[in-house]
Amino acid sequence: MNDELNGYTFYVHNLGRFYLIFIFKSLILNKNISMTPIWKDNAIISLKFKYNQISITLLDSLQLISGSLEGILKSFNCKVQKGYFPYEFVKNNNFFYIGDKPSIEYYKNITELGYKSIPTNNWSLKKETLKYLKSDIEGLLEALIKFNKNVFAKYNLNITKFKTLPSLAITSYFSSYLPNNLNKDIKVIKGEIEKELRTSYFGGNVDVFINKIEKGYHYDINSQYPKAMLEDMPIGDPVLSLETDLNKIFGFVHGEITCPS
Questions:
Q1: β-strands 33-40, 98-99 pairing
Q2: Which of 86, 194, 209, 222 has the smallest C-beta neighbourhood within 10 Å, fewest atoms?
Q3: What is the pLDDT of residues 171-187, one digit of tens each?
Q4: Are 86 and 110 contacting, i.e. CB atoms less than 8 angstroms apart?
């Protein structure tokens, strides 16, 4: 591994749910490589690995720019566009196939004009595979450069410092849209306190154990989140307290609730 790559960040589109499957085993089996993954929603969004004194970070570009790579390259009007490839044609016994180009049925989402643009004779599966991969890499690089330039020009932020679009969005909000007199009051809570607060997030966790009643009333309360956003919200530094009187508490409370018999 080249020493010049130390500290570099590389992007892979759909790293956590696809491409990482193909490289994870090789990294694990190499005893000289140590890895530090970061997970989100059962997928790795960041993988930092070290080899000797060289440290490299892999990030998932899908976490910053959602959508298919083909759609992203079109939306950013990239010079390099995703090419055509006959996925269904590839088998374990024809890796080095050279001959007539595969039938149009082997291609997905290809037009007649696009199929005609593919050379008919001396079609090489190896060359077409490398060409296809090259266009994917160069196209993604072009899109990310454009995206980073737009973000830096507007918010003075470097996208390589953020693993997901929400983290980039909240930082751009704090730095560019939030009034200075409020910026100091909004506390970004991390560490053990954040873990404790997140244990209270049980939205949508509903279980029905008695599915039939003879007589009763049904109540449905809508728009509780928008209503709550109109009320006062806790700000500033959190203060731990052993207060048990709920009338004197404004914030998060850990308690055991006993329902009436």
A1: unpaired
A2: 209
A3: 998 888 887 766 666 77
A4: no
